[in-house]
Structures are given as structure tokens and as C-alpha cells.
Amino acid sequence: MSALQSYLWLATLPGLGPQAANLAVQAFGSPDAVYAADRAALAASAAGLNRRQVECLMDKSLTRAHDILSDCEKKDIRILTLGDSAYPDRLRAIADPPLVLYVRGRWPDLDAAPGIAVVGSREPTPYGVRMAEGLGRSLAEAGFVTVSGMARGADAAAHRGALRGGGITVAVLAGGVDLCYPQENRRLMGDILLSGAVVSENPPGTVHKGGLFPARNRIISGLAVASVVVEARSYRSGTMLTAHHALDQGRDVYAVPGPVDAGCSAGCNELLERGEAAILTGPETLLRAYAGMLPAPPDSARVREAFLRQAGGQTADAKAAWQAVEQRQAVKPLSAPQADEPAAAKPLPENLTAEERQVAELVRGGALTPAELVEQCDMAPARVMSIVTMLEMDGILKRERGMLTINNEELGVRK
């Protein structure tokens, strides 16, 4: 029996699941050793397997593994195991990584070119479609790999944007990679396979069923250094599950804000309100945080143009956001108090946390944009952005023409 066969045997045991399979591998050292273990060894192992799981592991048939190998060979499907060097390190690091990945297309090196997940509603607004496409296109221009789930709506828009930007995109499916889901995305799937890849933890022929999607979402976030939520109608939706997986995996989460009365943005706004995500209005924040992971520094001007071209660059809000980024190098902190602020700065509220106070003091000291705060803080970018959001909501910070200042008029007791 080959090592690949033992991986396929363990990964496809009915009723076992990836968590128990990983525990067994950790306890015995390899799928080969798990296969060789008898009932007593399995029950007494450090994996903490229950009686049902032990019974699953006593099924030593290799028929499924042989059938999968034959099917993958016929359909030109590549198999990556947890022990392969091409298996992404970021995905390997999550609590319950898939033992096996089935891949069609051109599998990118996600350790060399980091992935960023862009996910959202299956019924997005035109604004959500533009944002997802714009982010996909700008990430492609920068050199990131766009990861999503190929669902209709925002996911498909993110893939299309990446393809239009000439970049690489990876679609993570719940069922087999030989089955397109939804059927309306058959042409999109074909385009993805030309330059990127379609991947699943389930063998070819697996029908896309509802119960497989939550597990699929952990792979989307696990492949990425950060996840961006464009639009989501419910805090418990599949998109929000992806965000929760990312948080559990210790990955950064960003959310595109929307109107407070818009149901399509309810999930995004809740993530922001809870401080679980940082605000994202364009790709510049992602460049600041992750461009250092790329093999070559991206051209920020071209990334900007790609985003505005796809997201609708004629809108006043988009223009204002990018004008603020362009001005950040030219605008210098004032050495004297501004005319509309009193000469003596008011003290900050006493009930600020240490992190909130650090951010507020940096703004008072001359940090004009969130990007500058990220550079000067020793906190994760998503955490900095969340704190900025909370301080703005509390009236301690204000933003004018894209620049942050202390809101001296509202200082005093924290709201």
C-alpha cells in the first residue's frame, strides 16, 4: 500500500471527519500507522477516539482509494496530501486541515504568492458586485491570489475581477472538482482552470450538498492570509461562517461597510460593530498590510487604477478615498494648533484601553491615515483598523477628507 492510498483511505472513511482523522495521524505519526493499528491500539491512543470513530477506523478496505485514484487519473485531477511539499503551509496550520486536496487546473504556490479570500452574498447589490470585481482585479494586479467559493453573486464577481486583471484565482468547491456548481458558472469555471485552479477536499463525483458547504468555508479562509467580506445579509450566513473560520484560524478579517438599514450589508456591519473586522474601502489597506509577502513590490498606482476601473471609479466616494491616499505623502502634520481647534488639547477619556490610547496618541502626534497607524503600531493591521472604527464611533476621532484627527469638540466622557 502506498502512502497516497493510505491518505485516501483515511480521508474517505464514512463518518470519521477531518478532525478525528487529523487526531489519529497526530497520535500515530502517519496514515500508514493508523491503518496498521488494531482496535485496542486505536482505543488506547492519545487521539481520544470514541467508540464510533474506532469502528470507522476498523474498516480497512482500500476499494474507495483505488476507485478514486483511477477516477482522478482519467479526469486529470491532481491529488495533494497533507504530507506533500505543494500543500499550502497556511492551510496545514489550521486546526483541522483536509488530509487530501483534489485539484484541477494550475495549482499556484500559495506560500510564495499569498492568497486573499474575497467572499460575499449570493444576491449582492450592484455596489457589491462592483466592489468584489474591483478587489479581485486589483489583487491580481498586485500579485496576490484571489480565493473564493465560485458561488453565484459576490464570489463569482471576485473570480471574474481577478481573471480580468490577468491574475490567478482559486475556487474552493464543496463537492467534486469535476462537477460545476452552480451550473450557471460553467464558463467561469473553464476560465479559472486556464490560469488558476479549482480545489476540493471531497473526491470527484461528490454532489454539492448543503452540509458540505460549512466545511468548505474553512478551506477558503485557511488558504488565505486574510478574508474580505463584501456583502452578507445575515450574521449566520455562509459568508459569515467563512469570516468566523478566519477569526478562529487567527487570520485577519476585513469588511466592506454598507448603509445601516441595508439588509445586504447587515453581516458586514455586525462584524465591524463587534470589532471582529476592519473597515475596507479599497485595496490600499491590503497592500499596506501584505505587500511585503509578495515576491516583488506591486505598483500601487496600477493597483489603484485597476480597482477604480472595475469598481466604478467615477463615483465621488471612490475618488475621494484615493485622493486621500495620494495626499498622504504631501500633507505634513501641523506644528501649531489648527484654527478650528483650541490651542490646549483636551485630555483623552480615562476609560480608554491601552491600545485605544496608543492609537489616539499617535493620531494626536501626527499620524493622519489608518495606513500610517499600521506602520507605527505594534498591532495587527485588522486590530488597528477596528480600534480606529470604534474611536470614530465614540466621537474621539474624526475623519475629514480622508485624514484622521482628534475630535477635540467631543472629548470628555466617552460615549
Describe the structure in your own words.
There is one protein chain. The chain has helices spanning 3-11, 18-28, 31-36, 39-44, 51-57, 63-74, 89-92, 126-142, 154-164, 186-195, 213-222, 238-248, 266-273, 284-290, 300-311, 316-327, 354-364, 370-376, 381-393; strands spanning 78-81, 100-105, 115-119, 145-148, 169-172, 197-200, 224-229, 252-255, 278-279, 397-400, 403-406. The chain has 19 helices and 11 strands. α8 packs parallel to α9 (154-164) and α11 (213-222) packs across α12. 47% of the residues are buried. The protein has 3 domains: 1-74; 104-304, Rossmann fold (3-Layer(aba) Sandwich), CATH 3.40.50; 329-415, Winged helix-like DNA-binding domain superfamily/Winged helix DNA-binding domain (Arc Repressor Mutant, subunit A, Orthogonal Bundle), CATH 1.10.10. The longest helix has 17 residues, at 126-142. By secondary structure, the protein is α/β, with parallel strands linked by helices. Mean pLDDT is 86; it is low at 314-343. The strands form 2 sheets. A 9-stranded mixed sheet has the order 1-2-6-5-4-3-7-8-9, with helices on both faces. A two-stranded antiparallel ribbon has the order 10-11. It is 44% helix and 11% strand.
